[in-house]
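Retro notes, item 3 of 5
We never archived the inputs for the succinic acid complex last cycle. Fixing that now. Sequence and ligand:
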Amino acid sequence: MAVTGSLDPLVTFNVALDEVTRQLDIDAASILYLNPYTQTLRYAAGRGFCTRSVEKTCLRLGEGLAGRAALEKRTVHVPNLSESSEFTRTGLFAVENFTAYYAVPLIAKGRVLGVLKIFHRLPHEGNSEWLEFLETLAGQIAIAIDNAELFHNLERSKTEITQAYDATIEALSYALDLKDKETEGHSQRVTELTLRIARKMRIKEEELVHIRRGALLHDIGKMGIPDDILLKPGKLTDEEWEIMRKHPMHAYQMLSRIEYLRPALDIPYCHHEKWDGTGYPRGLKGEKIPLAARIFSVVDVFDALINDRPYRKAWPKEKVLAELHEQSGKHFDPRVVEVFLSLAEKNLLFEEE
Ligand code: C2E
Ligand code: SIN
Ligand code: SIN
Ligand code: FE
Ligand code: FE
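Structure as it came back at the time:
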């Protein structure tokens, strides 16, 4: 249990070596780990050696006694090393004065993962019970290595999948900006600024990942708006507005089907709600509007107004900030406007400022 109790191979090796040297009453032991790509056995951990030279051990599969144990998947026992021509590093082991030697392959699910080596300075003949215990321990070490590998591969896969999702979302977000004739980098900019304000407002770290995804995809619902409306150079008619105002609902329909994006829905679905309850699609009021969406709407309107849109020219920054101030408590959550304007005052809205 001690040997298989950890997912860190080094902890496993050290516990195993403590048990081996204590329970089997031997002088020194080391574990070699098999690299499956290069097919070499390298030192991983050791106990009871006089010098550190053992740490340099590197054997090809089949090379030396340990290499043979791994290749042939069986225990190699040498009662007297001085009589073995295969024992290569006589110089080193002359210092150690070892006599008896065992190399036990570490095998889990039929796969060789390494070798456990045992050294004794006096002649040593283990009885069959002793040998059985040695091989049982070797089996437990192998299981522990196998578990740790499984666990780390799983963790790596999870990280790779998350990275693939996020890269896909960023590409989609970029495509949406192009489609919407947004200014270069609009979605990236509003995403970064939204995260900055969210941190200032002490939103929990684990929620930030969903805010990031939601902000990048905030106007994904505009994919459902016909181009002649989306890109119309002038004011929208009442009928056109009715269609345009459906874009948050389209976002809800699209994203709620994707499990990992459901927690990211607040911004795409609620970014046109207004603090005083006059927004759309649901006319939510005050704190009924998710905080992420309240933060985002200030940032999105700011970025929309300081840039040219197909339907109007950019406004000067002072005029935009005055508008945000004017809309505090009407369109926007006053707390968010306060944080936003304090960042603006200190020129902290963008990284490059
Ligand atoms: P958008 O261009 O990304 O604008 C996002 C939000 O910024 C707007 O949401 C609005 O709250 C604010 N905003 C943008 N421009 C102005 C402006 O000139 N004055 C004021 N006071 N606020 C502005 P809103 O109004 O719900 O509009 C949603 C989307 O509808 C806009 O996204 C845009 O795609 C479209 N849209 C809005 N007005 C017009 C228009 O007059 N003509 C056309 N062709 N599209 C429009
Ligand atoms: C062997 O175990 O095959 C050679 C001795 C060593 O490198 O430790
Ligand atoms: C950030 O990138 O600044 C936080 C959000 C995330 O973890 O993706
Ligand atoms: Fe929108
Ligand atoms: Fe936007």
